[in-house]
Amino acid sequence: MIARKVPHMIYGADYNPEQWPEEVWEDDVRLMREAGVNLVSLGIFSWARLEPSPGEYDFDWLDRIISLLHENGVMVNLATATASPPPWLAARYPESLPVTQNGVVLHPGARQHYCPSSSAYKERASELVRRIADRYKDHPALAMWHVNNEYGCHVAECYCDTSAEHFREWLRARYGDLDTLNEAWGTAFWSQRYAEWGEILPPRSAPTFANPTQQLDFRRFSSDALLKLYEMEKEILRGATPEIPITTNFMGFFKPVDYWKWALREDLVSDDSYPDPSDPEAHIKAAMSRDLMRSLGDGAPWVLMEQTTVRVNWRERNIPKRPDVMRLWSYGAVARGAEGIMFFQWRQSRAGAEKYHSAMVPHVPTETSRSWSEVSRLGAELGRLDELLGARGEAETAILLDWESWWALELDSKPSTAVRMLEGLYSFYEPLYNTNVSVDFAHPGSDLSSYRLVVAPNLYLVTDDSVENIRRFVADGGTLLMSFFSGIVDAQDHIRLGGYPAPFRELLGLQIEDFVPMATGETNRLDTTGGETCDLWADLIHPEGAAILASYTDDFYAGTPAVTRNVYGEGAAYYLGTRPEERFTKLLVERVCDEAGVRPTAEVPPGVDTVRRKTGAASFLFLLNHNQETVEIRLPSPGRDLLTGKGHDSQLTLDPLGAAILQEERHKVDV
Ligand code: GLA
Questions:
Q1: Over the stretch 2-50, which tens digit does the pLDDT of each residue have?
Q2: Do 245 and 304 have their domain in common?
Q3: Among 114, 219, 244, 667, which has the highest number of CB atoms less than 10 A from its own CB?
Q4: Which stretches make up the Beta-galactosidase C-terminal domain (predicted)?
Q5: Would you say the CB of residue 344 lies under 6 angstroms from ligand 1?
Q6: Annotated binding site for Zn(2+)
Q7: Residues 373 and 484 grouped into a single domain
Q8: Using one digit for the tens of pLDDT, what is the confidence trace for 529-560?
Q9: CB–CB of 66/141 below 8 Å?
Q10: Is 306 close to ligand 1, i.e. is its CB under 6 Å away?
Q11: Which helix or strand (DSSP H or E) is residue 175 part of?
């Protein structure tokens, strides 16, 4: 269960009552009851209203709205209001403003205009949090804490002088002395040797490529600087209310912040998610984020903290979700472990930059609104899903993701800057999703022993511990599928010498003589029966025991192996030295799943997403039809659809964009 005080599926939104006259609040709570809302995130952007001038606080309005919500059965996910400082903070402490890499100061007038290392920001923010915590800690409506908002969303790093000082402190703690730092940063190169700590700067705009390790460390530092802010607030809240769960909202695969580190420090994971309705694969990309969220919390239930009912306002063209899509995508989140579905925001703003962003309550009268009827329907349905609470997903496959490796992979001055982490992850996630295989994401250093198959896309940077962890996984009988440009550097972004990829040569049974990055539009071909093409990258592989599964057919490296398999210990390690067209990756993924004994969740028609969640006593099969046509599904077990209450024996018909959650009668099902 997400929060003891809301022992149901959570349903609600960000609620910004300060944007409205109080008469509207009565209407708000009436409509919240109508829609089945049981939790709202309150006060996220209220700092200027709560502390109109320095040290002068006004909580009366917040007291009134919290009481009104409580009287109406709506619990509160109370925000700490530190996400957007009031203009007075910048006026009084101009040094609190963030500075970009080019030295440009970011001014107030939008939001998130603070330097994460600013002491003025930290002092004023923590005082505000203390007062909020103190005032509401015993309020019966308080169900959860919402710390700040989307850390790093607009300002993930700051290059000001204070940040430079803090960066140096962070480096001192990491390296101890300057010689060690000089060694780690490889400063013998380009005369970069530092003689004094004071000479070290963040990687500000420079004539050409900045030192890669300096850049990597600055990313580590910047993620940690934000994490410190979170911990500063968390400590205050924990002291006031040891029992109330604390979260801050993530943003899916958000590069600047290492969510593995963060999730460990949260009571529950929550996520904001805005898939693009104009992208035909949006639901698959959304599923990938949902699987990440479940994995970050080690399988525990999480909350979809924000999504939109219909449209956002921040793309160039804000394509609406078609009828039934919001419902279907919401169940996509529930299928992958969400026990809360919430929106940005409750009532659509009348003014400000987000007035064209849809909300649960639209500008137009609710009686004439398609989205309101969808909102009410979903609220009523979620109210019937208490049985699902605590049910967990089960995955036999893990895709490895390490934020540090992601940062290092995408630094400049590489063989090819076209190799992108998310594309690498997705190139394997998509075929796994399409074969109905459940996937976790895992850190390469984490316990992999529960998986049969581990996929390691472009795992560029690896620590010795991760190398040993992956090696042991295969030696103990696991199946590994690793793709190109993996195991190339250590934690300092230094090449691991001894023939690429040095730490995995024995495991993979090969050596890579060289990389051949391909030009835009350039392809090669594999000597498979299907003759599939490949692009982006070609590793020139010399097998050292590995069996060759496919070789290139063209160019100066025709006949060189591209795909291999090596038996290692009790397991097997596959290596993919290029980016093949999807058809090939799909076949390869099917083969490794088969070999690893990874089973699909169920056999369903294409375009149907199927996921299972289980408790000790029950098993729930989600069937989500992303097709525009009706589909017939042969059920692996008879069961009852929680959404309709209807029983189904062996067959179930799903409407276009329809969803079913089947409580299975037989729950140890072999497909
Ligand atoms: C983010 C923010 C919200 C809002 C939405 C709009 O998720 O957290 O405050 O700006 O984006 O999509």
A1: 999 999 999 999 999 999 999 999 999 999 999 999 999 999 999 999 9
A2: yes
A3: 114
A4: 607-664
A5: yes
A6: 115, 158, 160
A7: no
A8: 999 999 999 999 999 999 999 999 999 999 99
A9: yes
A10: yes
A11: helix 161-175
